[in-house]
Amino acid sequence: MLERGIIFGELTYKCLYLCHFISPGIAEMAELDPSVREKTDALDAAGNTTAAIGKGFAIGSAALVSLALFGAFVTRIRHSSGDTVFQNGVNMLEPITFAFLIIG
Fold first, then answer.
1. How far apart are the C-alpha atoms of 39 and 28, rounded to whole Å?
2. Angstrom distances, CA of residue 51 to CA of 1, 3, 6, 9, 15
3. For residue 20, how many other CB atoms are within 10 A of its CB?
4. Res. 4: pLDDT tops 60
5. pLDDT value at position 93?
6. What is the structure's pLDDT at 46?
């Protein structure tokens, strides 16, 4: 389900990108009325907001996926080692652990 949302978000982003980014330039080159340029500028602002929201969702989903993969890795290592490695779990509040989770 998440993959469908990401694909839909990407398609929406690309379609809106074409509408909001190119339309002010077309209005300028076609020497249309200033009222048209005002409308395309409003469309440009809406498109920029939509793009920022889409990028926020993408970053948030990537962070959740990395956290889930890290959890699966810790669980797998723990079971493979017979509960000798990561016996007490992983403390996410340790700076080195948190830093490497973010880097990874």
1. 12
2. 21, 18, 13, 9, 11
3. 21
4. no
5. 76
6. 77
